[in-house]
UniProtKB/TrEMBL annotation:
Gene3D superfamilies, per the entry: Homeodomain-like
GO cellular component terms given for this protein: nucleus
Top-level taxon of the source organism: Eukaryota
Localization terms from the record: Nucleus
Protein name stated in the entry: Uncharacterized protein
Name of one Pfam family that matches: Myb_DNA-binding
GO terms (BP aspect): regulation of DNA-templated transcription
Matching InterPro entries: Homeodomain-like_sf, Myb_dom, Plant_SW-associated_TFs, SANT/Myb
Gene Ontology molecular function terms on file: transcription cis-regulatory region binding
Annotated Myb-like domain residues: 8-60, 61-111
Record flagged with keyword Transcription regulation: yes
Amino acid sequence: MGHHCCSKQKVKRGLWSPEEDEKLVKYITAHGHSCWSAVPKHAGLQRCGKSCRLRWINYLRPDLKRGTFSDQEERTIIDVHRILGNRWAQIAKHLPGRTDNEVKNFWNSCIKKKLIAQGLDPKTHNLLPASRSLLHGNGAANPSNNPAQFHSNGATANGGATTPFTISSPTKAAAYDTVTAPPPPEMSAPAMYDVVTNPAGMFTGHDQAAAAAIPAGYPYPDNGGGVLMSFRDQNAGLQTSMDFMNGSSSSSSMDHAAGMPNGNGFSQGMGAAFMDVTAGMWTTAVDSGMCAGIEVVQQQQQPLPPLQQPQGLVQGEVIGPPAVMNGGGAAADKGMDMMDVSSVYGSAGATAFDLELMESCGLFCGGGGGAGNAMEQLQWDC
DNA sequence: AACAGGGGCAACCGCTTGCCG
DNA sequence: TCGGCAAGCGGTTGCCCCTGT
């Protein structure tokens, strides 16, 4: 059975011959591919347009890298996959010269097995049950064999089953070159981000590079720019924190649970914020104030400049378990009244926060300042 | 040397999405 | 608004090659 587009045609299938490749390359080079369905006819190929397109995209494009994946690329794939799941095209965007098909095959043939061998579920990146029991056993586990150390740059996990998580794409490293405030000397290692996932699917983070990427003082121009994000799972009663250290003593905390000691909804006038594993997320979320249900509390009493006070927000309302929050205000203006936090943080041990939801919230969208922030590298493609 | 089994990878299938008339 | 078409995308298939017996 052929493609829809070529079911009426007599087309060749299977592997491409060098002659066919040459014809296709010549034609595309000379004329481009404005319409793939017309390409085989004009190029003199007995193939359907879809097949031509696939061949060009996956193998004949001049900008393809080919060859084996580097360790760096492998780490990038793992890291982004943890966030995005099997969205191979999105993952491939973080690997210049690689195609989605290539990434997918590499994942299925190599990475997946490696993760399993390390006791990690390749789907969730959580520890497999067997490995959890080992970790929670008598403590005699050899740290070098501890899957929790996988790709960790040394940050200490907060106990329990953990899933270290790193982002270290080449483009990310380049982006951090733009950082004006350098990280502390001991943090000058290449951009590595560790998110430690606890059993409830929460995560903590400690991203020195991302912290450094935050403009000094942002979102509070008067302070040093350090940001501490704190998360609490209302149901599980768990709290984790994330600090964007920037060599500053000031910090802010973010908490999605109303009734936290630091605040009550949006009473302090801050926009709702969401965390991201990268710095750009912070800017976007705080600026837009779109995501209801998470408050940002300024621990140091420094007034916000008027222009940075998100307008139109109302106090978040916790409807009660399951954690559903009614943001209203700006969020409602964007057409999202309700936000199921459980789907974001992943209840019942699910590790992946709901990227789709956050994307739909527009949390990943918007300009991070054009300085090549990490979110731009992640190309959420809103 | 022949064969079987497994792994890797190129290509295909079919669903979804976006665009345009 | 709807339908058709093309492109995008993820899952799956099947071929080829390598390795072990």
